[in-house]
Amino acid sequence: MNRRSFVGAVAAAPFAGALRAAGATTLETHIVRLNLRHTWTTTMSSSEYRDTLHVAYTRDGLTGHGEGAPIVRYKEDAQSARKAAESVRDLLLAADPLQFSKVMAEVFRRVDGEWAGKAAIDIALMDWVGQKLGIPLYTYFGLDPKDTPLTTFSIGIDTPEITRQKTREAAEYPILKVKVGLSTDEPTIEAVRSVTRKPLRVDANEGWKDKEEAVRKINWLEKQGVEFIEQPMPADMIEETRWVRSRVHIPVIADEACRHASDIPKLRDAFDGVNVKLDKAGGVLAAYRMIEVAKAMGMKTMLGCMVSSSVSVTAAAHLSPLVDYADLDGNLLIANDPFHGVRVEKGKLILPNRPGLGLTPI
Ligand code: MG
Question: Burial, 193: exposed, middle or buried (Cβ in 10 Å; 0-12, 13-18, 19+)?
């Protein structure tokens, strides 16, 4: 579904309007194709577009919007996410949404895997709850919107020439996140450095399979002004990552190795921090728990995202006053965002001061 037909379906369908006026509770699920501004390449895939699941939950004349970006690495796709959301339709239509913790616990009990599907449901419920209470989501969590961190802007893997062009286009962002992990790491970083001296963060996406190679690369990256390294080795190589961490001087952050709060205790000595994503965790509530568990264990926290629209990125941004680092740029990488939500000014995340997520259709 393109942007116009999606927004039309959500905002203007006369039938949905009549149902809203009548106070009916409805649940709509759509797969939305998000077109990328640049072909997006990491160690895992290369693509021109991404499909995400969008959920619209309507009750008492209010509509909460949610989104989940299926993660290929975990064998999820938009169809399986939608099927998962549809499998709990009756539960969601019958439940009291103000009992959202109870409702999501039941969704987690009934649905195996399908974290993007769960995230889309959770975000839609939390958007609705915020609107019902008349408060922004950050207020529900007791946070100060002035405390949002700077977000990085991500540069995917590409030729040196295009990497230089992307780096120039990212001039307004004070910190860049650069994807590495293929055989072109040094030329990529040198291409970025030929354009800018700003701080860099680097994500290897499990790309280095040899621990000695990882140490060499990380120590070279430190000399290039890199602040931290994300997931240098495969997720299951925790012992090797512990060995690497003891030989480098910049923080090592877990992403693929850390999907849920229950993963965090075993990562404590191998990583300095964890990258929390709503699509991995299964929504805002689960992401909040991950952040609190990591903090309780003395670890650094980061909020990341997949390529997604402003629905998912804005939901994550409402929790961002809690974390040390933010990489919330998924909506900036697409050309057909159906909503306005969180904005970025010189890298600073600016949260909408409206109830719920504070989204407005474009
Ligand atoms: Mg990552």
Answer: middle
Q: In degrees to the nearest 10, what's the CA dihedral of 123, 128, 132, 138?
A: 30
CA-atom Rg of the chain in angstroms: 20
Sites in the chain below the pLDDT cut of 50: 1-14
Pull the structure tokens for residue 148.
């949002």
Residue 272 CA to ligand 1 center (angstroms) comes to 14
Using an 8 Å Cβ cutoff, are 341 and 313 in contact?
A: yes
Q: What is the pLDDT of residues 240-299, one digit of tens each?
A: 999 999 999 999 999 999 999 999 999 999 999 999 999 999 999 999 999 999 999 999
Give the pTM: 0.92
CATH hierarchy code of domain 139-361: 3.20.20.120
What is the CATH code for 3-134?
3.30.390.10
Domain ranges of the chain: 3-134, 139-361
Quote the ligand 1 centre to 204 CA distance (angstroms): 7
